[in-house]
## 1
Amino acid sequence: MEGSNKQSVDEPRQSSPAGLIIRQKEPTNLEMPFDKVDSYITPTELFYIRSHFPAPRIDVTDYQLRIKGAVRNPLALNYQELREMPSETRTATLECAGNSRVFLVPQVRGAQWELGAVGNAEWTGVPLRALLERAGLEDDACEVVLEGADRGTPAEEPIPPGPISYARSVPREKAIQPEVLIAYQMNGRHLSRDHGYPVRAIVPGHYGMASVKWLTRIQAVREPFQGYWQTSDYGYWDYLDGKPVRRALAEMKLKSVIARPRVYETLLPNRSYTVFGAAWAGETDVTEIAVSTDDGQTWAEAHFIDPARRHAWRRWKFDWLTPNQRGQYTLLARAKDANGTVQPDGHDPNFGTYVINHPLPIEVLVEDPSER
Amino acid sequence: MEGSNKQSVDEPRQSSPAGLIIRQKEPTNLEMPFDKVDSYITPTELFYIRSHFPAPRIDVTDYQLRIKGAVRNPLALNYQELREMPSETRTATLECAGNSRVFLVPQVRGAQWELGAVGNAEWTGVPLRALLERAGLEDDACEVVLEGADRGTPAEEPIPPGPISYARSVPREKAIQPEVLIAYQMNGRHLSRDHGYPVRAIVPGHYGMASVKWLTRIQAVREPFQGYWQTSDYGYWDYLDGKPVRRALAEMKLKSVIARPRVYETLLPNRSYTVFGAAWAGETDVTEIAVSTDDGQTWAEAHFIDPARRHAWRRWKFDWLTPNQRGQYTLLARAKDANGTVQPDGHDPNFGTYVINHPLPIEVLVEDPSER
């Protein structure tokens, strides 16, 4: 485990067993071991899997996508018809809104995600806008509800009276942006079943819960949708005239995460070690990363590996000369965005068990095993 | 991620970032990424950490170990006096009784351990027997209670009225066996704080909860100890004349775990891949490992890497020719012990959220990335 402290972050590292960390067995909730981030694009087999219910089995020959509600020409497309429409390919980072929940103390309900419920992939599909144009979106439609084929009775209070389909709305102004895709490919191949085969939504810049998998229905609505997954779950408390009001989570918040070293990794003293990570923001760009190796007492600037690209993460690195003094050290990374916003110092309780975007402590041990 | 399928299991693999997986941030509950098992002895920095309360800080100059209760000569030893007694070094596997809990469906309470809440280390210390002889254990003492300096109010019902110290009893017949140590070294170095510095118990063959960390008190008792951690927690239901009675968990049950491949790892088709794992039993030896690559329909025999050694794990390997047919495959491993016992097919509900020792499914993907 000692090994070389010196790493190249630009070259792929030695291939090693990958696989995912199980956070929940059924439904399938698996996390990427985040120290495995080596490339700008997350390989599909390393991309986290977040499911609310068992993954439906959809036969592509039976597949139908219905577009209805506040539209002039409700329509239904089969898979072939969707594939024949002009497509686009976009890179987008998806992060689960509950990523890093294991860092909340005291512990809270929900899957105990650490760092790896996030990934950056290339998505190919038809812009939602093109479908809404074809269906003739009414002027008074305020939101577009995306509904999946996955169904069940959710666990968190208030619990609806019977099984419901997974569904989330996207505000009209976001739904008509060119980046929002009705996607059928991930990283150049058809979607895997766990990632929404045959068709899913991709809402770049929003937390993963907006990118509905196994998408079968698109419904334009004239009043805000108050579905389970934007009120009971995936909601937060905002304040209106001092009174708390419930709102749906949407845009991803600014965040930077250390991929290497990993928690409790042992590093050699007095060596160059490249701290490596990734950072992302919702609808803006990450412009600066600061790293602390003394639990936030002092900070230094890290260097970006990737250019700023809206809706995609930027990997970064920081060359650390590890201390001579044996002991435990706490590393932190903190991002700043193009608006001058920096990550908050702690978790905002109005977000409940979601939006854990403060700098996350990575404790490492510095010691020389040969001197034991 | 593709990489070479062919591995040597006898040679250490390329060093790669190690570190641990966080299952609970506070108190510290960290798991070994089990695909990192490369050596017979688990390096200390990879050994899982299971804590019930924050780790106490003990100054070794103040440290005292008291031996009292049903003994003729109650005594107290300081750290130096303990170190001056004749010591022994033994290899023992410790497994958390809740290891693999994440495989239980539906999900149950408690840390969602996957495979890595187990490790095999060398422990050095004074046999408990020597201390009990020195203190003059009374003939009518039936158990020995081991008490740590860690304290708090536990979370599971029935909850005691106030903070209590972590304590567990060992039956007399086990306590006087030569393998039970009052240990101050792990893998040749003083214990780390997370592993019980300066002194802990090691009860080989029993689940980890018996190996009390931060040990400060040894109390011989004349009636069975009914403490929280052997009645409320770490207990199971046995049957006496058809009536359920509560008993304390003790011996580790026979178990075999696949370390590589890892869940959702992608393997190349039609290649030799060495499936690799470890198996252990409580008070007997593991004598046989069967591996299935088709979810239990057919089984083949694996080969041991390590000899049988009471209280320590045996690593094993199995050469698999991966199928030509792309798809998902479920791997299982099943051990047999010297008594002819084999692992059960499923989890016994009498053990509640503990003793998850049935063959655990490892789903892998077989496909050739170049043919995508």
Note: The CA atoms of residues 297 and 332 of chain B lie 10 Å apart.
## 2
Amino acid sequence: MKQQGILAVVSGFSGAGKGTLMKALLEKYDNYALSISATTRKPREGEVHGREYFFMSVDEFEALIANDQLIEHAKYVSNYYGTPRSYVEEKMAEGKDVILEIEIQGALKVKEKFPETLLIFVVPPSAEELKKRLIGRGTETMEVIEQRMNRATEEAEAMDAYDYILVNDDLNKAVESLHNLIQSQHMQARCNAELIKTMKEELAAIVG
Amino acid sequence: MKQQGILAVVSGFSGAGKGTLMKALLEKYDNYALSISATTRKPREGEVHGREYFFMSVDEFEALIANDQLIEHAKYVSNYYGTPRSYVEEKMAEGKDVILEIEIQGALKVKEKFPETLLIFVVPPSAEELKKRLIGRGTETMEVIEQRMNRATEEAEAMDAYDYILVNDDLNKAVESLHNLIQSQHMQARCNAELIKTMKEELAAIVG
């Protein structure tokens, strides 16, 4: 019997390299499924429905809430964001390890609902490095960079609430660490109830 | 600052291959320290003091108990067995991941005292395979094999109390799984309190 997948939430500061990390993980290993969030915000240029987000109207989103079809949802700057339940449940049942790349607020809600969720917080090796990376992108104004640094300072307060901290220094190493972490969770006794039961039965049958 | 080591307890049925697994793990990686138990039983042929066990008199052992120098101890068949505290604490402080290969009774005592201990239970892929391995050794009488199978049947009842189940099918794979499991535990938020504190301070200093 195929074991059910692990549910892992990945959060972290803007500039910690979550996006690149997720992309590299999914390219290297085929046992993962990245959950796509639903949102009521307008698509930005280059964003594709069903790839970056499921874009929808407020009415559509509120219908999902009303029908308990979201694992978690929150409102940021007057836009809804949420995690559709069906995709996550289907993929986990298929044995895929499902990754939610979501904000802290949502992460803590998921953990409350599903205590077995793995909460992983991605950080750059230092705050200095975070600032460098944000500046290095070259796409943001200093004002936006300062906003992100301020936000990181707030978000850092929640780091202790996460189960694991992943330092993203070297991309390849970080991918391996993340993969090993999630895969080792399949060894949890609670994930192996079937194996334990079978072992007990087999032993009892042999010993008689 | 070097992170403190992880404390991992490895238990499992006689014939599950714990000994071979530990040997292979310690040969391949140098970040582990295998704790050596103290016992009052007499050394068997080929056993060396300080390698298989610290062999000692009942008086010596009871002095260790009286001075709280054992993490756990138990009596089996009128002999004492216990885990000396100093070795474990020293190695962990050096940053070594310390492995205790001990019985279930002792494992649960260690977990009670140190809830952060990783309890790992090693099993063969099946009960049939366990019996085969015990017979395959060719060193035991059928009576001893039956005793071991009976004991395994009893011990199987405790499997659920362990954190992780390691199926020892292929030795190399099992070594890697065990290594990845223990190493990934260094990412736990509680192991990274220093990193979290530094990150918060650095961010606060930059943001001002």
Note: The beta strands of chain B are 7-12, 32-34, 38-39, 54-55, 70-76, 79-84, 97-101, 118-123, 164-167.
